[in-house]
Amino acid sequence: MEIATFQMAAVFALIVASLALYATEKVPLEVTSLGVLCGLLVLFYLLPVVGSDGNNTLDAVTLFSGFANPALIAVLALLVVGDALERTGALDQGAAMVLAAGRGSALGTMLMALGAILVVSAVLNNIPVVVIFIPIMQAIALRLGKQPSRLMMPLSFAAMLGGMTTLIGSSTNLLVSSGLVQLGEAPFGFFDFTVPGVVLAAAGLIYLLTVAPYLLPDRQDMASTLTRDSRRFIAQITVTAESKVKGTQFESGRLEAYPDLMILMVQREEHAFLPPFDDIALQPDDVLIVAATRDSLAEVSKADPAALHPRLSDAPEEGGAGPWAGR
Fold first, then answer.
1. Fold of 225-314
2. pTM for the whole structure
3. Angstrom distance (rounded) from CA 295 to CA 191
């Protein structure tokens, strides 16, 4: 096998492995990304791609140069701008106008909302646009009496469609334009994508308004699912190092020490465990999401006050005082 063929096969194998790890999330995403980069460094160090000048064209300097790419810096800057707009509430007035403009009908409300997303995503990166409009779409879903799941997918696609209309609307456009500069070609202009992008965005908008509503599932949100019994409360509590349940294993998804608490999820750092919690022993700093009545939570607090309580560093600054961040 020729070296070039082996190099291509190794790169494709690395791509397949990385996609599998991203999809399964067996390891954290950032670890997978760093592993891919390290794999490429090792591969092209052992099997260099020699150019006409006798140097390795894919050395470490070249592979790391992407972190200094102006397009990447521009994308990160747009993320900062979008996050600032969200945190400062600069678009709250615009959101109110969108809700008021489409008050007459569900179709009109969706048309105004998705149209606003298309326009904003043309001048901002897709990710901050989606973050900004998530609470708006949730408010629209509440007003229209629909589940938020039916509006989140149109939100995502509308942001992508609007991003195709300008250079900075999509990080892909910026990266390709930067690649042209590196190849000695003229970069893309700001509005080079506008005409075909608007045609595609218009077609996509019509599809989202007419066809997509019949295809999207009507899922209940987690809060509705977990709180069907109005007498129960959802609480988030943390296992301490002194807790009596430290090291305890579950039996049929329940803790023997606290039989009246329904454990919904165990959060351990970035990992979440769902019932029936087979072979899981509780460790200090594990966060338990539980459903229980007010009396059951009070009994647990009385019997073992130090057993379950939130870390003070994670406690909310305003409101929410007390042993549980319950809803």
1. Alpha-Beta Plaits (3.30.70)
2. 0.52
3. 62
Of 191, 216, 288, nearest to 248 (Cα)? 288
Bridge partner list, 251: 254
Provide the 8-state DSSP code for 278.
Answer: T
DSSP per-residue letters across 73-122: HHHHHHHHHHHHHHHHTTTHHHHHHHHHHTTT-HHHHHHHHHHHHHHHHT
For residue 220, the model assigns a pLDDT of 63
- Tens of pLDDT along 44-78? 888 888 887 878 888 888 888 878 777 677 777 77
CA–CA gap between residue 132 and residue 126 (Å, rounded):
10
- The SS3 call for residue 307 is coil
Q: Which two tokens stand for residue 37?
A: 């980069």
Helices and strands of the chain, counted as H and E runs? 13, 4
The letter for the amino acid at 40 is L
CA atoms within 13 A of residue 52's CA, in its CB half-sphere: 0
Terminal-to-terminal C-alpha distance of the chain: 63
CA distances from 104 to 93, 143, 154, 209, 271 (A): 19, 11, 20, 16, 44
Of 155, 81, 145, 68, nearest to 118 by C-alpha is: 155
At 28-44, the pLDDT tens digits run 888 898 999 999 999 98
Burial class for 41, CB neighbours closer than 10 Å (0-12, 13-18, 19+): middle
Please say whether the dihedral angle defined by the alpha carbons of residues 114, 119, 120 and 122, taken in this order, is positive or negative.
positive
Report the alpha-carbon distance of residue 324 to residue 307 in Å, rounded: 12
Q: Where are the domains of the chain?
A: 3-68, 71-215, 225-314
For residue 271, the SS3 value is: strand
